[in-house]
Amino acid sequence: NHDKERGTVDNVTLRDITVTGKPFPPSRLQGFDAEHQVKGVTIQGLRVNGRPITSLAEAHLALRPFVEGVRIVP
After folding, report:
1. pTM (predicted TM-score)
2. pLDDT tens digits, one per residue of 44-59
3. Which of 34, 42, 47, 72 is the most buried if burial means most Cβ atoms within 10 Å?
């Protein structure tokens, strides 16, 4: 975004997300800098085309700089 002030993402849970369709595109999480990080993200109950996803690789989710503590929970 183009906001003048930067924020953080901390301790967020995303639940019961269903993705359908092909192709399944990659996604990424990225913080802005060491003071504006993405931390503690849990993705719970992610399904792609009916299949439960159990890892970041299966989710096509890349973790970029200033990201920590991201996990997939079936």
Report:
1. 0.86
2. 999 999 999 999 999 9
3. 72
